[in-house]
Amino acid sequence: MLAQWTERDQIGRGAILSALSNTLFDVYCSDSYTVKSLWNELDQKYNIEEQGLEKCSDCKFMRYQMVEDMSVAEQTHEIINLEHALADAEMKLPEKFLVLSIVDKIFKS
Question: Pfam family of this protein, just one (predicted)?
Fold first, then answer.
């Protein structure tokens, strides 16, 4: 029973490790990880859904589109709020990029 569990654990670890970049592989290739502990640690650190504000704000900012039924001032305010959320998550955008993004979004609408 233990031999079967060990074999399945090694297969699972191998499958996960083979999907990682070389840098992450070097970090997580230690035999001290079971497949479950490896999965849980990677899930906790890198799962997009769990990263909340950072990933959410990043995606919202990049995908933001101006709409006809709101004023340009209101929408610009929304974009600036998204930029503040990114800055709070230590993802500060250069001012030039922010201005060019707003101008680009205005002219696309």
Answer: Retrotran_gag_2
Q: What is the pTM of this model?
A: 0.44
C-beta of residue 30 within 8 angstroms of C-beta of residue 5: no
**Same-domain pairing of 41 and 59:** no
Residues 32 and 62 in one domain: no
58 alpha carbon, distance to own chain's centre: 8
Query: From the CA atom positions of the chain, what is the Rg in Å?
Result: 21
* Cα-to-chain-centroid distance, residue 8: 30
Could you give the CA distance from residue 87 to residue 64 in angstroms, rounded to a whole number? Answer: 17
Q: How far apart are CA 58 and CA 50, in angstroms?
A: 14
Where in the sequence is the domain holding 84, given as residue range(s)? 52-108
CA-based nearest residue to 103, from 78, 67, 72, 60: 72
Query: CB burial class (10 A; 0-12, 13-18, 19+) of residue 61?
Result: buried
